[in-house]
Structure formats: structure tokens, C-alpha cells
Amino acid sequence: MWTLSICFLSFIFLFSSSMFLVVTGFYFILKDLTYFIEWEVVSLNSTSIVMTFLFDWMSLIFMGFVLFISSLVIFYSDEYMSGDLSINRFIILVLMFVLSMMFLIVSPNLISILLGWDGLGLVSYCLVIYYQNVKSYNAGMLTALSNRIGDVALLMSIAWMLNFGSWNYIYYLGFMKDTFEMKLIGMFILLAAMTKSAQIPFSSWLPAAMAAPTPVSALVHSSTLVTAGVYLLIRFNEVLIGNELGQFLLLIAGLTMFMAGLGANFEFDLKKIIALSTLSQLGLMMSILAMGFPKLAFFHLLTHALFKALLFMCAGAVIHNSKNSQDIRSMGGLAYQMPLTSVCFNVSNLALCGMPFLAGFYSKDLILEIVALSYLNMGIFFLYFFSTGLTVCYTFRLVYYSMTGDFNTSSCHVLNDEGWIMLKGMLTLMSMAVLGGSMLSWILFPTPEMVCLPLMYKTLALTVSLLGGWFGYELSKFSLSYKLQSLKWYGLVSFWGSMWFMPMISTLGMNYIPLFLGNKFFKVFDQGWSEEFGGQNIYNTSVELSSYLQWWQNNNLKVYLISFAFWILILLLMTLI
Questions:
Q1: Do residues 381 and 287 make contact, with C-beta atoms less than 8 angstroms apart?
Q2: Burial of 566 (0-12, 13-18, 19+ CB in 10 A)
Q3: Is 413 helix (H, G, I), strand (E, B) or coil?
Q4: How crowded is residue 539: how many other Cβ atoms within 10 Å of its Cβ?
Q5: In this structure, are residues 147 and 127 in contact, taking their beta carbons and an 8 Å threshold?
Q6: Other C-beta atoms within 10 Å of 159: how many?
Q7: Could you tell me the pTM of the whole model?
Q8: How open is the CA angle 11-14-15, to the nearest 5 degrees?
Q9: What CA–CA distance (Å, rounded) separates 552 from 544?
């Protein structure tokens, strides 16, 4: 009974708080308000510890969205995690996760940002290893250690901000951005954001973190952990605009978007496909941010949070009913077995693809039109539009495998739509995935900008999406594992499908040399010279001495007489001397 109450109370509190924050955020936009609050925690002589909070439309709306999604995720977890004996611990961990994100969002100060940043890293480790097995432990270590690189970069930027006299970065971004210190801080912040938002070459932890329970994945991939890096760069966007840092981020984000879209087409794990789609969308946010459009990146961040949380919740419902099977090849015919879940799943997939008038369309189409309007080279332009086609491609492939055809597992299955607690959470998010994009676009962009493009450019996004959908359908009709081996393409496919060997580089590549050297040291020192001069040598010497003493004592009469004679001889010699 207490389990029900903690889930329900958390849901009620977070949901009501989210509504209040979103409405307050909309009011702040209309009135153009910003509140900067300083709270002096301790003041001793000339030293004071001050906690600062920044409440503007961006932080309030983002906090509202985080609380809205986390409330529905907790409500959904009540049924999804019902068989877990320690669900209270799970809910408390999720609440700590949300609290860390709140600290990150409202902090204009690098010290308090570090509090939320490290809180996210620590709690995410606890959540990834929640199911205690070797795979989860490996994924947890990869997640934690990848994020530690960003934590160190943030600490370095805190150290360099000592030059400015305060850690409230928001004071210095405008007029100090051309100084050497601010450029260096910008580099460190960029590195921190790249690790947290899993850009190349730190991408491998994101699919590995799928070892966490599905409600956690829904929360992590929509509005908390992976979006922390994007949000930090939105706040620091003035450091990126018009210099080499922005160009570097644009290239890396474009490659991440392309790599993730390509990899998702060769993956068969349901959660990993959705994780790679998150990686692709993060690349899209980072790249438009690098081009100097932070409001657009923030807009896509919010719309993506809505349909991505829904996508994970639908995937969780399918996995829950499929007795924890995540392989899309063993699914099929879900549209007949779980119609309501399938409706939610398809709506979120279409929103991801940018289907007109769903949430994803308003942000994604606007981003692509701004890209077509901007002064870009051919390589970046290709990465944007080809990655959009790949998004539709892997989405259609996923729908083909899971929704159509016959059910591919045992005929004695228990697939149904009777999990009403999960369905209520999913249907609430589905309404937002349909309506959220239009409402946000009216509020964030009250005066629409005119994007005037030729007909070919205007229809390019639609053409690429249709081509991607057709290619995804064709790709699904034959089995990759056999056909491509026979075509001698297996090496290329394994390269594409394994995120360009990044998981191997960041695990085996990082671990092999230390483990190899450790083995050599163990053999040479622990089992070599230290044994030669240590334990084995002492043992052999003791055995030798004891056998000599035993011989001495066995021949005692002769030995005593001889030793007595030697003793007398020594005494005589001593007296003579």
C-alpha cells in the first residue's frame, strides 16, 4: 500500500508543480521578465557563500517540462516496476535525478551547476546498474567514466573563472567573450557538453545506458541527462558564435547525427534503436546551436522531450508484455495485439520523423528550412538532410518489424492493452506529442519569421523523408545477416552498425593496454622478482637451514665433541690475542 502512495504522491506533486512552472514561464515570456535571486548561505568576516538562482522564461519552461515528463514516468513506473520489491528506492533515485536537473537548470553559477551536473552523473550510475548483473555494471562504469571527463572539464572551467572574480558566468559572456580566458572556458564547457550529450567520440555510453529500467530511459533520453549538455551550451551560446569552436561543434554534431542514423538501421535491439534516434536528435540540436540559433535548439529540445518520452514508454509496454524480449525480430503483429499502445507508438514515431502538424514537425521543419536558408558548405548540408532521411528510414524499418506481419514468438503469449496505469501516462503524453509543438511555436515565436525558399528547397525535407521511408521499407524485406555476408559487405555493415567501432575503442581500446601491462607487471613483479627475493626465497632458505639443523642434531655426539673442540680452540686463540 505504501508503494502505491509514494508513486502517487510523487506524481501529484510533480505534475502540479510542472503546470505551475509552465504557466509562469509563459507569463515571463509575455512580460519579458527575468528574476536573478542571490541567497547568502554563510557570511564569515569577508568570506561569503552565495547560492544564486536564475528564473527566466527558458529555465521555468524547461523545469516545467522536466517535471511534467518525470511525473508521468513515475506514474507509469507504478505498474511497470510493480514486481520489484525495492520500488521505493527506485522512485527516490528518480526524484534525486530530477532534483539534480533542477539545480542545473536554475543555476547561473558554475559551482552550483557542478552540484547538479555531478548529481546527474552519480544518480545515473545508480540507475544504470539498478538491475544487478555484469552487463549493467559494465554499462554503468562506461557511463560514469565517460561523464567524468566532462566533470573534469567543468572543474577546469571553474578554476579559470577565478580570473573574473565571480563564478556567475552570465555576467561575463557578453563583453568578455573575445578574451583568452573566456575562449579557454568555452573549450572546456564544449568538452563537458559533448560528453554529457554523447557527441563523437563520447557516443558509446548512450546505447550502453539502455541497461537501466525503461522508465529511467524515458526520463534520461527525453529531458534530463543527455539534454544537460545542450542546455549548458544554450546558456553559453555567445562563446560559440562566430568562431572556430562553433564550426568544430557543427562538424562533430553533424557527424554524430549521421553516424547515429546510420547505426540505427542495422540494430535489432528495440531500446538501442530508440537510443540511437536520441543521439541523432542531439546531434541536430547541437548543430543548429553551433550555427547560432539557441532558441531553435531549445524549441526542438522541448518538442523532442515529449515524443521521445512517449516512444520509450511505448517500447517499455511492449517489452513488459513480451516477457522482457527486446529483439524486434521476435515481435510482429503488435498492431492487432496491442492497438492502443501501437497508436501511441506510431504517433511518437511520426512526430520523430517530422510528420506535418505533430510536435516534431514544427521544430524539425523550421530547423531544416533555416539550414537551407543559411550560408553552409555542401558537406554540412548533406549531413543535415541525409540524416533526416535516415531518421525516417530506421523508423519505417522499426514499424515494419514490430507492427506488421505475424507475431514471431510463442503462440502462448499474453500481449494485451490491459495495463491501464501505463496507458494513462502514455495517452497523456500522446496528446502533448500531437498538440505540444504548435502551442510552443505560437508562444516561443509569436511573430513568425518569413523563410522564403525556392520550391525545390522547400520540398527537399519532404522528398528526403519519403525516400528514407521507402528505403527503410526495402531494407526491412531482406535479412541483413545473410544477404550482406554473401555480398562480402559484412565488414562494412559491422562498421556502420557498431557506431563506427566507437564502443570497441572506448571499452577494449581503453582497457586493453592497461590490462596487458597489468598482466605483465603481475607476472614479472608479483610472480617474478618479488617472489624470488620475497616469499619463495624466504621459504627455500628456511627449508635449507632447517634441513642443515636437522642433520646437525641427528649427528649430535660427534657434532658436540667437534664443536666443543672448536670452542676450546677459539678460547685459546682469544687468550693468546
A1: no
A2: exposed
A3: coil
A4: 11
A5: no
A6: 12
A7: 0.85
A8: 75
A9: 12
Supply the pLDDT for residue 3.
46
pLDDT at res. 1: 42
Q: Which residues in the chain show pLDDT less than 50?
A: 1-3, 480-482, 484
* Arithmetic mean of pLDDT over the chain: 84
- Using DSSP's 3-state secondary structure scheme, residue 577 falls into coil
Give residue 79's pLDDT: 83
pLDDT at 203: 86
At residue 81, the pLDDT reads: 82
Report the alpha-carbon distance of residue 202 to residue 146 in Å, rounded: 7
201 prior amide bond cis, ω within 30: yes
CA distance 133 to 16: 37
Instruction: Please report, to the nearest 10 degrees, the dihedral formed by the alpha carbons of residues 478, 481, 486, 488 taken in order.
Output: 120
Domain range annotation of the chain: 1-187, 241-497, 501-529, 534-577
Q: Which residues of 7-39 are buried (b: 16+ CB within 10 A; e: fewer)?
A: beebbeebbebbeebbebbbebbeeeeeeeeee
Q: Which residue has the cell 545473410?
A: 482
Helix count (H) and strand count (E) of the chain? 27, 2
